[in-house]
Every structure is written in C-alpha cells, then in structure tokens.
Design goal:
The protein is 23% helix and 36% strand. With 144 residues, it is of the alpha+beta class.
Length: 144
Amino acid sequence: MSTDDTRPVLADLTVGDVVGTRTVEVDRARLVRYAGASGDFNPIHWNDAFATEVGLPGVIAHGMFTMGAAVALVEDWAGGPGAVVDYQTRFTRPVPVPNPGVATLEVTGTVGAIDAEAGTVRVDLTVTFEGARVLGKTQAVVRL
C-alpha cells in the first residue's frame, strides 16, 4: 500500500477501492463528553422528555459528533487529520441513542475520485444506523 506502511500511495489507488470500514458505538456517556468538549448542551442530546416533546424519537447524537466519528476512518487511513483538505456532508436522519445501551454506526470509506495532478483522493463515506443512511453525500478530500 505504501513505502512506509502508514500512508496510502496515490498510484496504488483505484476508484471503487474500499479504504476501510468501522463500527462506532455511541452511548449517553459519549454524548455528555462531546457536549462538554463542543459546548453544545442542547437538551435534545441529553433529555428524553425534551427530545420527544420536540418530535424526536428520544435523545439523539450530535450531528457534528456523527460527522467527526465518520471522518476519523479517513484520517486513520491517510496517516493523520492533516491530510484531509476538505470534508462535507448532509445530515439526513437523527441517530437516537438509547438509555441504557448504544447506537451503532457503520462507516465505510470508498475511493470516489482521484486527481493525480493535484495529488488528491476523494473518499466517499457511507454512514448508516440500523441500515439507514444518517449522513448523505459525505465526502472527504485527502492530499497524499
């Protein structure tokens, strides 16, 4: 894959290659830690009564947490977060987090495009919860 076995080599990649898969388990404790780190204390992320009152199925994971958990797959594959030069997504569905228990996200990264001149690869991420996509058009551009 690469000369130092830590970073992929652009010339070795083909559109359609799977760069990795990952399972991310989210529980209420993770939501509390993320709220503290991000400063996002919206009660939809910790209060079941409030979340259902506003029409949600219960407490949901922070969208930015979900987005960050997904791109970690690309960061690890590329050898660090500094390789990611662009990242975007659309939030398509909430991720309800049970109490007790975990919500399990499934993440798959696939090479979507290669720009040899720029030395970049677009990695398309599929992020699902219970078989349904929770992020849409999720793409990270990586400079190798």
